[in-house]
Design brief:
The complex is a heterodimer of chains A (112) and B (113). In chain A, 4% of the residues lie in helices and 46% in strands. Chain A is built from one helix and nine strands; from the N terminus they run ββββββββαβ. In chain A, the strands form two sheets. A five-stranded mixed beta sheet of chain A has the order 1-9-8-3-4. Chain A has a four-stranded antiparallel beta sheet with strand order 2-7-6-5, with no helix packed on it. In chain A, 36% of the residues are buried. Chain B has 113 residues and is mostly beta strands. Chain B contains no helices and eleven strands. Chain B has strands spanning 4-7, 10-13, 18-25, 31-37, 44-50, 53-57, 64-70, 73-79, 87-94, 103-104, 108-112. Chain B is globular and about 35 Å long. Classes of the chains: A mainly beta (112), B mainly beta (113). Chain A binds chain B through residues 32, 34, 36, 41-46, 49, 87, 91-93, 96-97, 99-105, and chain B through 2, 4, 33, 35, 42-43, 45, 48, 55-56, 58, 88, 90-92, 97-99, 101-107, 109.
Amino acid sequence: LAKTTQPISMDSYEGQEVNITCSHNNIATNDYITWYQQFPSQGPRFIIQGYKTKVTNEVASLFIPADRKSSTLSLPRVSLSDTAVYYCLVGDSENAGNMLTFGGGTRLMVKP
Amino acid sequence: ETGVTQTPRHLVMGMTNKKSLKCEQHLGHNAMYWYKQSAKKPLELMFVYNFKEQTENNSVPSRFSPECPNSSHLFLHLHTLQPEDSALYLCASSRNTFPYEQYFGPGTRLTVT
């Protein structure tokens, strides 16, 4: 079971780049890494998913080093509306329950 | 904007009541999920359905009873709940259980009195 560890909270300012790191030391060969964003009283929203190296979409980038024991979600030029909780999930097709286990997440506060 | 809808959005029920939560997805997905999110706690996976078959039940008490009549609809039947069951109940769907991203509904805020 690939357990994830994230910082509980982070503060940033508008316009800055924010990097949130997730540790998953016992990640397995078939595990993918997925990040979600959640606003208060709403369901989480998928941000990005990756297996190795770098993945980029219109919202964020995901950096995964060669050993895959950690991953970093990068949010470019954050705005106040990026204030939310960000969850890192790790899991594979053999253990769907792992992929669907949300930890405590990182509470990002963006200040003006 | 979401392709997953949930009704009702808010529900207050007594411990002896029976009620049902409804979830509908308009995305053509095959997998559907129920999650519970209590205050200041992470999301807890409750049930997983894939192609209408239940594939995961995370030791959920029997007072919660899921039903998936087809791939587009998911219900959570509630009876004799406890005050600690008060939470945000979230429904989600995905194309299949892995590795596709989940799309969540807005949730039902349940209060048990």
